[in-house]
Amino acid sequence: MTEAIVEPEILEPIIARFNGDPGNLLQILIEAQNALDWLSPATQGFIARSLDLPVTRVAKVVQFYTHLYDTPRGKYRVLFSHNITDRMAGSPALMAHMLKRLKLKRGVVSEDGLVSVGKTSCTGMCDQGPAILVNNRAITKLTLRRIDEICDLIRAKAPLANWPAHYFRVEDNIERADMLLGSAYAPGEALRAAIACGPTGMMAEMRKSNLRGRGGAGFTTAVKWEACRDAPGDERYIVCNADEGEPGTFKDRVLLQSFSERVFEGMAIAGYVTGARKGLVYLRGEYTYLRAPLEAKLSEMRRNRLLGMSICGVPGFDFDIVIHMGAGAYVCGEETALIESLEGKPGHPRIRPPFPVTCGYKNKPTVVNNVETLCKVTEVALHGGLAYAGTGTRQSAGTKIISVSGDVERPGLYEYPFGVRVSQVLEDAGAYDAIAVQISGAAGQCLTPQEFGRRIAFEDVPTSGSFMVFGNNRDLFEAALNYAHFFEHESCGFCTPCRVGSALVARIMEKIHSGHGARYEFNELTRISQLMSTSSHCGLGSAATNALQDIMKKFPTAFDRRLIKRDFEPGFDLDAALARAREVSARDDANAHLDAHLAEGADA
Amino acid sequence: MNMRPPMKKLKVATASLSGCFGCHMSLLDIDERLLELAKLVDFDKSPITDIKECGPCDIALIEGAVCNSENVHVLRELRKNCKMLVAVGACAITGGLPAQRNRFDVGDILERCYCDMPGAQTRVPDDPELPLLLDKVYPLNEIVRVDYFIPGCPPSGDALWKYLTDLISGRMPRLDYQSFRFD
Q1: Which member of A48, A182, A196, A425 has the greatest number of CB atoms within 10 A?
Q2: CA of A596: which chain B residue's CA is closest?
């Protein structure tokens, strides 16, 4: 706590830039931290006073978001992506190496206050991992050599801007392109096509297209838009959900990197149809590097009259977009939590109903669409609803972008019409020895080779796009343990079943991992899973043990070989638990020790 | 409650580890139903009978957390001899109030109490008769397998009665929400 002094000359311009609006609290805190490296109590107090908020409100937000720090974390804050694909690519060894080189412990700041090294949830670089974030800038394709170079740069205190540019290069890796990724596109084309249809005509096309949301739930987009359009309210909002936090998903990153005008035009079309005049993009903090290019794209579109007042010369068609940043919270991908976050609050999911379409951002009718869904809107505008409905399957129209990672020869994006078989994706990506595919991320399902004939579509295997492949040398227990830690970390803490349940699951998994788990613990996992899935407040809790349950059912040996035959044993060394008391009382008599187990045959 | 007496009287053991005896007080709180309970069960090792060694039992009701080596021995003895082991009350289920010390190092606590306090001795007692403190206070289910948990601080007499009578008459014990709602 050395720097308890406030820097008004740094904070005041930031607060002014956000109009001193308490609704922008999260954005102000993110910028303040970018400038000051952490948010000291003095900084939080200054911001609270300037926004006329209680300091507890500010502290609550700081404590909720993983990437906001209320203790110093150093000038360089290194976070290793902890997703299973990064781990499979070797990130634990790389992290150990870096800690050794910097003579650090994980999560502890170096004595000179220069650097800290920690872990974070999936950073969306699964096709080019192992990846890290340094002060929220992504560095991909790490090797031991690159870690050494980074350690040298940190020690030399080189500013991040002067680090070699190729560290920060993020590849698109588009391996199979179809309707969206493969077609030529002229800026403004889709928007003009929508305007030619008129708002009602465009809505009719949307209905005909049967376009369904690409975030995972698959709600019909036209129904959402209609509900928002028809809801009473003086203002409406279009929100683009770019909080792509599902482990193993990275399609939105590529869409925002290389297809952003299509995303923004999709938003403008949504505005045109529903009568919304303002759009918000909620960009996850891990994709901070995309912010500047996206802002540049927005300016370019404004110059070309594709955004702003009277778009394409149509009087009354006013629509503009602002970008809001996230700060490391998976739950903010849930639409109501995302809206809370947009309003500058902790991202706790709201109780539904009312749904966002009637009562969303600032309690106004709001459409929340996934990045990919909004790109699809431009396809519908260009080719018409019927043409769009012509591809894919009956209930899942169009194409789907799949983010393939893990044990494959060619990780990257694969766009297929809905209905593609899992085996087809595996073959195209070069996965020859897969024993399992985790579909739709840590909250999705785990498929065995017997199920590789199943089809990716809402009728069969729905997905948000994550497709993590496990080769035959992989231990699925490790994956399940990884998901358990993921959900324990990402549970927002609002409801007890999820907050406590996810922690219990993680502890039990650790106990089994350490070789102390019995059948009893295995059964407890099932019991807690059922409780979490039926009584959690939102989808995070209810889906948190999907993959675990799948792996327990389909890969029983991954668990069985770790379970002890005894009825029960403690997960820790009981005798060692007496060591400290023995030490201070200077005892070592027989009564000062405990056997590790009950006498043999004792347990009924 | 009208109940057919079981064929054979069940044996019940009870113990208070690191607890306040509040849960035992709750058991006494079933009032005149104690007489009915006495017709249905025999008490083995229990503060009620003052029997020291536990024989073969059907049910063990245990309150309090596991805080020292003696607690571990008692808990293991009951687990070994009882068919069904029940964690009764907050301390047994979660560590409860005694677990407040888990934030501190147990060595520091002992030295503070025995050496640093005004008028204290100069060293931590080393009598082999004394049970040693564990590094942390543990709930029962981290030391042995637990079959049932009855929540509450303490659980009400009615909850204990409902649980015992369910079990004695061979039903799956069920506590409705009202019986462990405390606000």
Answers
A1: A425
A2: B143
